[in-house]
Amino acid sequence: MSGLTDLHLHSNRSDGAESPTRLVEMAAEAGVTTMALVDHDVLDGLDEARGAAESHEIHFIPGIELSVEHNGTKMHMLVYFVEDEPGPLQAKLAWLREGRNERNSQIVKNLNDLGFEITIDDVLRWAAGKSVGRPHIADALVEIGAVKSRDEAFDGLLQDGGLVYLDRNRLSASEAIALSRAGGGVPVVAHPKTISGGAADYAALFDELVDAGLGGIEAHHASHSPELREHLTTMAHRLGIAATGGSDFHGNKNRDFRIGVGTGDLRVPDTAVSELLAQRE
Ligand code: AMP
Ligand code: ZN
Ligand code: FE
Ligand code: FE
């Protein structure tokens, strides 16, 4: 009997709450039999997660999540089948994480100016790995009692365009796609629902990205309605690329996305994996 598929999971090597080992254990407990770890800008959790997945007989796909831009439009890009070893995409990761560090310090300054008394060390204490981001700044704000949750810290403050928000180093979508493909990875547009500007008309954007080498669309994301999942699946298949999906789990205390099932109704089809594999060729 095949279980659940979840191709969008975060560990504490970036902004998830759980270690790669614990994450895999929780996935197994949730009935997941195929999973991908996609930490932000970092590959450090892959070896540990793969080892744990083996002992739980879970099919493991290595991955990463990048923040990119395309003609001024920001979006996230998942890359599957990327390993923690030297490669063209891997060579850019230190630069991306350095951009995070510079941006984080600046956001902390902005917060200090508003009277929130946190330091960068307070932020770093919440990060177990070297990819540090706004969620860890949020954790520091929760610790001093300024807000109750990560969500509340994003609300108006850390969110894109929020009071203390600042952007950071990004690859363009076409660079990210080219670097991924050059190393044998399969790039997938993550949760299109959050593409800045709403991208009411995805068609033109997807056409351009497919020309650049895009291999899939994350149709089945926890935040998507059933209608949007179906719409994006149809678009992906019409373009001849994979329709993938996952929960975007960051830990049970963060957001409402649970491993394998999102807010409850998520069911990532098995075909997501076969379609991704076909994109590898
Ligand atoms: P950063 O990578 O530092 O730009 O932070 C963005 C990350 O914060 C996203 O990739 C999500 O993992 C997380 N995030 C975004 N919005 C929220 C929110 N409302 N509540 C909690 N976490 C969020
Ligand atoms: Zn995240
Ligand atoms: Fe994302
Ligand atoms: Fe994510």
Compact overview of the structure:
The chain has helices at 20-29, 46-55, 90-113, 120-124, 134-143, 150-158, 173-182, 202-212, 226-239, 271-280; strands at 4-9, 32-37, 59-70, 73-80, 171-172, 186-189, 216-221, 242-246.
Give the ligands present: adenosine monophosphate, zinc ion, fe (iii) ion
Level-2 CATH architecture of the largest domain: Alpha-Beta Barrel
End-to-end distance: 28 Å
- What is the chain-wise order of helices and strands? EHEHEEHHHHEHEHEHEH
Shape: globular
- Uncertain stretches: none
**The CATH topology of the largest domain is what?**
TIM Barrel
Task: State the domain count.
Answer: 2
Structural class: alpha/beta
The major sheet is characterized as: 8 strands, mixed
Backbone CA Rg: 18 Å
Strand portion = 15-25%
**What is the highest CATH level, the class of the largest domain?**
Alpha Beta
Identify the CATH homologous superfamily of the largest domain.
Metal-dependent hydrolases
Helix percent reads 40-55%
The count of DSSP E runs of length 2 or more, i.e. the number of strands, is 8
Mean pLDDT: 96
| Number of contiguous helices | 10
Describe this structure in words.
The protein has 281 residues and is of the alpha/beta class. The chain folds into two domains: 4-87 and 169-280, Metal-dependent hydrolases (TIM Barrel, Alpha-Beta Barrel); 93-158, DNA polymerase, domain 1 (Orthogonal Bundle), CATH 1.10.150. It is 40% helix and 17% strand. Strands 1, 2, 3, 4, 5, 6, 7 and 8 form an eight-stranded mixed β-sheet that branches. Strand 1 (4-9), helix 1 and strand 2 (32-37) form a beta-alpha-beta unit. The protein starts with a strand and ends with a helix. The mean pLDDT is 96. Bound molecules: adenosine monophosphate, zinc ion and fe (iii) ion (2 copies). Zinc ion (ZN) binds next to loops. Zinc ion is lined by residues 10, 15, 40, 250.
